[in-house]
Amino acid sequence: MASSSDPWMEEYNEASKLADDISSMIADRGSLPQSGPEIMRHTSAIRRKITILGTRLDSLEALLSKIPPKSITNKELHKRQDMLSNLKSKAKQMAASFNMSNFANREDLLGQNKKAADDMSRVAGLDNQGIVGLQRQIMKEQDEGLEKLEETVLSTKHIALAVNEELTLHTRLIDDLEDHVDVTNFRLQLVQKTLAVLNKRTKGGCSCMCLLLSVVAIVILAVIVWLLIKYL
């Protein structure tokens, strides 16, 4: 029977607690908006904890392989192997829901592939304090990556807002231009109608003038003819 100060059991309890925390965060994720920075941060935190859980599982496997044969019974060894196997299966299921299905070659938050052999080499030869330090270093690196990702998202958001304001301004200018075009077109139609009326009046005035001149010419001719007849 393992003692309460058994390093493997302490590490296993921490890993099991972390898996429960991840399950709770996955359940809470359903109540968040489907898009936006809030769910992005929440999802990134879940993926980060899944990565940390993978590191803990690797350390558990390394610790289990280093247990002296006579320190625990075969029954206890098989029990721990089953416990570790069940926890790994749970971790794989959680990872699969976030497209981290290949847990042996899982990827971290920055999108870099990590092989199980690399993880094992990082924890090999480390005691519990060293493993905790390694986990803190991984968390620090991932926090820095999240901060950069958040800065990029905010920068992109500001650019999108600026583009949206620019598009709104151009749309308003186009609407104003269309209004001016409509007003100008209306005025042009009025001018065209006025010109048509003036043209008709001008044509009518010319006809009257021609008729009047024709009458005057006939009268003059008649007078000339009468004078010629009278004096001849």
Question: Gist?
Answer:
The protein has 232 residues and is mainly alpha-helical. The protein has helices at residues 7-29, 37-66, 74-96, 116-123, 128-231.
Calculate Rg over CA atoms: 46 Å
User: Which residue ranges are poorly predicted, with pLDDT under 50 across at least 5 consecutive positions?
Assistant: 106-117
Distance between the termini: 165 Å
Average residue pLDDT: 76
For the secondary structure, the number of strands is: 0
Amount of helix = over 70%
Instruction: Please report the number of helical segments.
Output: 5
Main beta sheet: none
Percent in strands: under 5%
**What characteristic shape results from the CA principal axes?**
rod-shaped
Element-level helix/strand string: HHHHH
Content-based structural category = mainly alpha
Folded structure, characterized:
By secondary structure, this protein is an all-alpha fold. Helix content is 81%, strand content 0%. The chain has helices at 7-29, 37-66, 74-96, 116-123, 128-231. 12% of the residues are buried. Residues 106-117 have low confidence and may be disordered.
